[in-house]
Amino acid sequence: MSIVDDDAPVRKILGEWISQASSFRCVSAYGDAETAVASLPKDKPDVVLMDINLAGRSGIQCVAKLKALMPKTQFLMLTVYEDTDHIFDALAAGATGYLLKRRSRGELLDAIRQVHEGGSPMTSYIARKVVQAFQRPRSELPAETTLSQREYEVLRLLARGSAYKTIADNLGISISTVNTYIMRIYEKLHVHSRGEAVARYSNFPPNR
């Protein structure tokens, strides 16, 4: 497995924890997203521990990029962020689990085992927030809410974790136009963040 975290002491501690576990092997550790994106496809780890707050490209953007290159690799977010927006953005980008950094060594190793075996480990507080978001009544989405086909395409790409530039390139439009569509989506769905918009995405017909 591999580690991506811009805090050198944290990387060292995590590397030692993993190396001391008989069933794990730390093959690489990186301090920034750019190096990770360039090197991890060659390392081919089964699991990547990913921080969010990285210099330049964020850990969420890093996961979105790497998941396309490494579809079989499981990405486990290990971060201090516990707000809904970061949680949903990370999961939409391709992360399989989401843990807060205050986990103990035993809890972290258990989470790594879970994600490697096909589970989706989350700190209990994080799991509760995810459940609460998806338990919102569908009536919260106004019956008259209708997105244009292009707005729906933008929302679909947001739900996949695509960056604004990627959305612009895929749809053949400018980034400023993407921002305009996103503002309209937020207004129509009565949301204020990407994470909330992605959560509402599940209310739309799958074959739209």
* Shape, per Cα inertia axes: globular
Measured between the Cα atoms of the first and last residue, the distance is: 38 Å
CATH level 1 name of the largest domain:
Alpha Beta
Q: What is the number of beta strands?
A: 5
> Helicity level, as a percent range?
40-55%
What class do helices, strands and sheet pairing give?
alpha/beta
Rg over CA atoms, rounded to whole Å, is 18 Å
- When the domains are counted, the total is 2
Write down the oligomeric state: single chain
Number of helices: 10
Compressed to H and E, one letter per element, the order equals EHEHEHEHEHHHHHH
Work out the strand percent. Answer: 5-15%
Summed over residues and divided by their number, the pLDDT gives a mean of 84
Per CATH, which architecture of the largest domain? 3-Layer(aba) Sandwich
Low-confidence runs: none
Q: Could you name the CATH homologous superfamily of the largest domain? A: Response regulator
Largest sheet: 5 strands, parallel
Please give the order of strands in the largest beta sheet. Answer: 2-1-3-4-5
CATH fold-level name of the largest domain? Rossmann fold
